[in-house]
Each structure stands twice: as C-alpha cells, then as structure tokens.
Amino acid sequence: ERVQNIVGILSQADKFNTTITQTSESRELDSGKVVEVRTLYWGLAMAYYVDAAGEYAGIGFPGKDGWEWPQIDGAGPQIKKLLDVYEGSEEIQFVEVPARIN
C-alpha cells in the first residue's frame, strides 16, 4: 500500500511536470504588498506571474526551500500578454518574456 501511494504521488508530479497550468493566487511582493496574480506554471521548472493591471510581474522557479518569486520590473506588459494569449483573450503570437536557466 505504501508503494502504491508513492507511485500515485510520483505519477501526479510527472503529470504536472508535463503540462502548462494556469492558476489565480495571492503573491507577496518584495515590498510586502500582497496582490492577486495569474500564474502560468511550465511544469516544475518555471512559472510566470502578473497582476490584472500588468504592474506587478515576475518569474517563479524552484529553490532550496520551495518556489522563489522574484519580481521583474518592466516585464508586466509582456507577461500579461503571454497569459492573455494562453487564455485565448489575445490573438496567438510570439511573446518575448524573461527566463531563468540554471
């Protein structure tokens, strides 16, 4: 039974890692302000987040103690466009966004 539980957990992690997932969540910014953001996860490797106005945006990546969420000044309009394209409210197009590669 224990092995079955572990296999189930690993199966769900693999499923998440091979999909793009969009969620709405609250994010605490570097300033301490909490904002509602849309987040687009690229599996377990990376994520983008942006608030409704495109004012606060950044990337997420796995760190030693969980996901890290640095804010990237000036990236809001492009990350907002990326999420709008993903949701279908913007025409399909290439969107340049910042990335972090380890």
Can you describe what's shown?
This protein has one domain (20-102). Helix content is 27%, strand content 33%. It is built from 2 helices and 5 strands, in the order H-E-E-E-E-E-H. Strand 2 (34-42) and strand 3 form a beta hairpin.
Topology of this protein?
Blueprint lengths: L1 H16 L2 E9 L5 E9 L3 E6 L5 E7 L2 E3 L7 H12 L15
Antiparallel strand pairs: 1-2, 2-3, 3-4, 4-5
Comma- or semicolon-separated keywords:
102 residues, single chain, alpha+beta, 5 strands
Largest sheet: 5 strands, antiparallel
Q: Give the total of domains.
A: 1
| Lateral arrangement of strands in the main beta sheet | 1-2-3-4-5
Structural class computed from helices and strand pairing: alpha+beta
- Strand composition percent: 25-35%
Mean pLDDT: 91
Global shape:
globular
Poorly predicted runs of 5 or more residues: none
- What is the number of helices? 2
Helix content: 25-40%
The counted number of beta strands is 5
The rounded distance between the terminal residues' Cα atoms is: 37 Å
Using only C-alpha atoms, the radius of gyration works out to 15 Å
What's the SSE pattern? HEEEEEH
Write a brief structural summary.
By secondary structure, the chain is of the alpha+beta class. Helices cover 27% and strands 33% of the residues.
